[in-house]
Design a protein that fits this description.
9 helices, 12 strands, binds NADP nicotinamide-adenine-dinucleotide phosphate
């Protein structure tokens, strides 16, 4: 409740965007911080993206989350993007700095923050499952943090090879594509396994390419899937004694980063996690 008629505005743009959990979570963070801000969820068709970004600029929005299908296309409409976002080829978060709109990719940074509460990523052997936007985001941040070598496991070889090339050519870290149909080499088991595919989304029993028998108690296993957060992979990993990181925690962490970039106020991540669980009915 406010006496002022002029609030600061942030938004999430996507299509289809109904059901996106950001607004509910960000509004709880705004409330917890006692800010007079608003967060809108906006359905934007691809052909209207340029106008929508002009609108964000013209109306002085403080920040925007960019969702599917705009994460790549939005880059052309921004004044600048971070090195990571450029390497990943996607920006999921836009921040207004004076009159400029700056793109960032916070997805991999969110995972990295969560991971750093458990271990130091430098020199960790990584098995990256997936080669889409989320996988690129995570792989780039892990490589920038000194992790590697990487094994990349992806259904389509083409995207898998593109991620291997990105890691080797741009980040100068050793990477190879591993066959989807045969187990990763066991001579040097990975320290960190990340599922960044959409395999577990909406299906707690969906089985990915990682066989439970490959999982070990000295590994960390992360899954970017946030609904349901207890994926088959993470349940298998917990049963084998591995340390696990779920997609809910990753989502809260990177949304909190956006909140802090936009408001310069620390986000109440417990309130955000409660809101997210409530929104998703967990
Ligand atoms: N927790 C978070 O904060 C967070 C953030 C971002 C994304 N996510 C989640 O991450 C997931 C991936 O998102 P994205 O943006 O990376 O999507 P994307 O760019 O479309 O990539 C999808 C990835 O999943 C693979 N895949 C999809 N269906 C598959 C199947 N049935 N079998 C094997 N592989 C399959 C794709 O392989 P191909 O290359 O062979 O198609 C690709 O590697 C989504 O579930 C999304 O909700 C979570």
């Amino acid at each position: 409740v406010t006496n002022s008629s002029l609030q600061e505005i942030c938004c999430c743009m996507g299509q289809p965007v109904a059901g996106n959990p950001h607004q509910y979570m960000m509004e709880k963070a705004i409330e917890a911080a006692g800010l007079d801000w608003r967060y809108l969820t906006l359905e934007v068709a691809p052909e209207n993206l340029a106008d929508a970004v002009r609108g964000v600029r013209a109306m002085g929005f403080r920040g925007a989350h960019v969702s599917v299908p705009h994460k790549s296309a939005v880059i052309a409409h921004l004044d600048d993007v971070s090195r990571a976002a450029r390497l990943i080829g996607e920006a999921n978060c836009v921040t207004r700095q004076d009159d400029r709109l700056i793109g960032e990719n916070t997805v991999g940074k969110g995972l990295l923050h969560c991971l750093r509460t458990l271990c130091e990523p430098a020199k960790k052997r990584v098995l990256m499952v997936g080669a889409g936007g989320a996988a690129r985001a995570v792989a780039v941040e892990l490589a920038l943090a000194g992790a590697g070598p990487f094994d990349v496991l992806n259904r389509s070889q083409q995207r898998g090879n593109a991620l291997v090339e990105l890691l080797e050519r741009e980040l100068h870290v050793s990477a190879r594509l591993v066959s989807w149909d045969s187990p990763p080499a066991t001579e040097a088991p990975p320290d960190l396994i990340v599922n960044a595919t959409s395999i577990g989304a909406g299906d707690a029993d969906a089985r990915g390419p990682i066989d439970a028998s490959w999982l070990r108690s000295d590994q960390t296993v992360a899954d970017v899937t946030y609904n349901p957060p207890k994926t088959r992979l993470l349940r298998d990993a917990a049963a084998r004694g591995s340390t696990t990181l779920d997609g809910l925690g990753i989502l809260v962490r990177h949304a909190a980063m956006a909140f802090q970039m936009w408001t310069h106020v620390e986000a109440d991540m417990a309130a955000m996690r409660d809101a997210l669980e409530e929104f998703l009915g967990l």
